[in-house]
Amino acid sequence: MSLPKQLQDTFSPKELQFMVEEEPIKIFPRFTTRQKIRKQRDDLLGTNSHRWKMLTMNDTSLNNMVAMQSTTVTLWIALLLKQQSKCNIIAPEWLTSKALDRALQFEQTNTTRFSPLPWDWLIISEILFKKAPDDFHDPVHELRSKIQDLREIRQLKVAKGIRYMNESHLQLDNLSLLEINELRPFISGIMDKLREIHLAAVGTGDNNEMGDEDDNDEMFNGTMRNDSSRLL
Amino acid sequence: MYGELGNKLIIEAKRTEQLTQRHIDASLNNDMNRNGGNNISIPLYNDELINNILKEVRQLKQNADYFKQLKQEQDQDLLDGVGSALANEKIRGCQYFVNLICLERNKRCLMAYQRMRSDMIDKLIWNGDIENNSTAGTGAGSKGYEYNELSHNEQEYMNQYKNVLDDLNSESELWSCVEIMGNMNPPSDIFIDIRVLKDIGEIQTEYGTFNLVKDSQFYVRQSDVERLIQQGYVQKI
Amino acid sequence: MSLDIDDILAELDRDTTAVEMSSDGINLQNDASVDIMNSSLDGTNVAPKGQLLTSKVRAISPVEDFNKLKTLWKNERCSPELLPYPHQLMRRMLIRIQEQMEHLEILSMNFFEESAGGGGNGRRNGNAPANNNKMLPLLCMEAELERVKFVIRSYIRCRLSKVDKYSIYLRQINEQFLNEEHEEGDMNTETRISPLEALLSSEEIKYHQKHFSLLLNLLNESVLKYMSDDLQAINDTEGTVNMIDEPDWNKFVFIKVNGPPNGENEFDPLLIHKLDPDRYYYSITIPETNEDIELIIGSIYIVRYNLIKDLLKDDKIELL
């Protein structure tokens, strides 16, 4: 097969990281790329190799960096610059002790909903802890343990939500990339099976019109499902 | 019992699949492998079992023909109004049908086995485990794949499939431009810091010439020094 | 020559922010007509190269294209069926990659000439890049190129694995089409595109044909030729089990609802607007139970693929 089996229908952790690296992040560059207009014109003669010409992102901000003035770049660029000690990464607002406490509180008070963390919160925090630990104001070990708490409390909710799985559908707002990827094989597998079972049940139900069975069916489909679809 | 051999073949195929999966799972943790499943080994083509199944197929075919013929004769009896013809016909029909089902089952088993193996061959080629079909297999200790496990037909298939891919690769600008046979792991750390462990001398890269003297450090493209890392000449910092 | 490329790229930069993305690969008709335009241009690839580039690229910014490519990559990975190949988009990507590679080659050549001329030891000591601000753009552009290549590679390889998986099924839908075509006579054969041509790139079509015939040959030689005449088909559907793998249309998939690609919710006839709470949603119905599901913009759901595949092809949702 041209695609390794472990990559079929899902993404590898490295691929998830790759996706997250495409997201924007704020940095303090430690060098300046902005140039005087006249110099810029010279650049067009093609002799200058210091200009950024990017394919996948708007390179205006890269060509106008001023040392210690915050700017927004793609995360992987930030990481590359960081590796070269050419910038400091500004931790996102939600990734502070205070904000994480708020999120934790939300998770605790709302037993049926997830707090609106960014879709890549788990992965991006992991990356930043590893590659830019010195750029946080709060102690990293503290942040790390709060992220872990958040992860656990949300996992618990998912586990609880599993009993509402059905053959119809499920709504899962604010579930993040990594969480979805972890759940995917389990949830879609079970729901596929439920669907098959349901199909078989409906199939026989159609043939012999048994009132009893239909009633039960109705109850299960109607009430249970409508509740459940909003629960997660 | 008819079909038992076929079952045996399927069980073998299933086991192979599981083993391969386990192998891949295990090597997933290992950063060095290219596509997440290096050195998959294809088990020996089970000639003996296949031949026995094919023997069974011949037998079944003969049986089927025989019952078919019997049935035709009986159809004649039926027309002629022979008393027991009706009951006999049902029995013969049944016997014929059972034979047919066994035949079909054997066919499906053989095909499933063959398809499982051809999938594995595909995988080997895509993984780059088969580098060059003329030198592979002879290079002792190298990654070259031993062909002995494959049947004659499979070897043919492998070479041709490789050719198809090579042709498409050289025909298609897009495919060759993105290196379609390349690594399936996302690029990370395209440039790395390395420390030189043994004197190597000068190497030529797109970024100029590096003089790799013991204990010196460089910032280089990872792909340029991949081999040196594997051979232990340099070390990633 | 280097002057050319810089000018073009500089122009591209300016276009980047100004222009709206147009839908790509959704409208077949559209795609086909551009195909024709491009192929005629591709023939004359020497003199008006710059012109060709700008005329083709100006309409859609590279950033939009790359974002679209990433979405297509993810969608392809998560969908049970093979999704239509974005002919135009891929052509633009290829041109950009090639131009960028050329550009980088020139840059790195200049760079080394500069550093060699300067200190004289720049060449010998390859360590220069690490601490050199001038080298940074080059490093990043090089890294970016690898990333783009990876997405395309991964995307195509995913597609090829589906081409293999649904090999017979794909042949079948194509044969069906050709038969229909035949029945209808020559009335409008020229305007219609076969399902395979719409679905696959030319490379994929070739791959499909060739790999299929190799497989068929292998199965013939090792199994089928030993069978009786009536058991030699590889696409039995009448026997005990169907031998043709078809996509599992009812597979459950994770989706995110995005709404119309242009963001104009009011003009999407499929969108339903409800107040209290204020929300836009698509309504889909599960056929067996007649149950309606509201797919609210911005929300994440797990639903059967079949119910949302049209929304997916219209770019109104994405798979996760």
General description of the model:
The complex is a heterotrimer of chains A (232), B (237) and C (320). By secondary structure, chain A is mainly alpha-helical. The longest helix of chain A is centred in the C-terminal third of the chain and has 31 residues. Chain A has nine helices and four strands; from the N terminus they run αβααβαβαααβαα. Chain A is 56% helix and 6% strand. Chain B is rod-shaped, with a radius of gyration of 29 Å. A three-stranded antiparallel sheet of chain B has the order 4-1-5, covered by helices on one side. Chain B has a two-stranded antiparallel sheet with strand order 2-3. In chain B, a hairpin with a 2-residue loop joins β2 and β3. Chain B is built from six helices and five strands, in the order αααααββββαβ. In chain C, the strands form two sheets. Chain C has a three-stranded antiparallel sheet with strand order 5-1-6. A three-stranded antiparallel sheet of chain C has the order 2-3-4, with no helix packed on it. With 320 residues, chain C is mainly α. Classes of the chains: A mainly alpha (232), B mainly alpha (237), C mainly alpha (320). Chains in contact: A-B, A-C, B-C. Chains A and C meet through α1, α2, α4, β4 and α8 of A and α1, α4, α5, α6 and β1 of C.
Q: Key features?
A:
B: 237 residues; three-stranded antiparallel β-sheet; 6 helices; rod-shaped; C: 320 residues; mainly alpha; flat; disordered N terminus
Outline type of chain B? rod-shaped
Helix/strand-derived category of chain B reads: mainly alpha
Largest interface, C-beta closer than 8 angstroms, per-chain residues: A-C, 59 and 68 residues
Determine the strand fraction of chain C and express it as a percent band.
Answer: 5-15%
The topology string of helices and strands of chain B comes to HHHHHEEEEHE
Helix-strand topology string of chain C? HHHHHHHHHEEEEEHE
> How large is the radius of gyration of chain B?
29 Å
Termini Cα gap of chain C: 43 Å
Low-confidence stretches of chain B: 31-37, 132-144
Secondary-structure map:
The complex is a heterotrimer of chains A (232), B (237) and C (320).
Chain A: H1 13-20, E1 24-29, H2 37-47, H3 60-63, E2 71-74, H4 75-83, E3 87-89, H5 97-109, H6 121-131, H7 140-161, E4 170-171, H8 177-207, H9 211-231
Antiparallel strand pairs in A: 1-2, 1-3
Helix pairs in contact in A: 5-7, 6-7
Chain B: H1 4-28, H2 47-80, H3 85-127, H4 152-171, H5 173-177, E1 191-196, E2 201-205, E3 208-212, E4 217-221, H6 222-230, E5 234-236
Antiparallel strand pairs in B: 1-4, 1-5, 2-3
Helix pairs in contact in B: 1-2, 1-3, 2-3, 3-4
Chain C: H1 2-18, H2 28-43, H3 49-57, H4 62-78, H5 87-118, H6 136-165, H7 167-184, H8 195-199, H9 202-222, E1 252-257, E2 272-274, E3 279-286, E4 291-296, E5 300-304, H10 305-313, E6 317-319
Antiparallel strand pairs in C: 1-5, 1-6, 2-3, 3-4
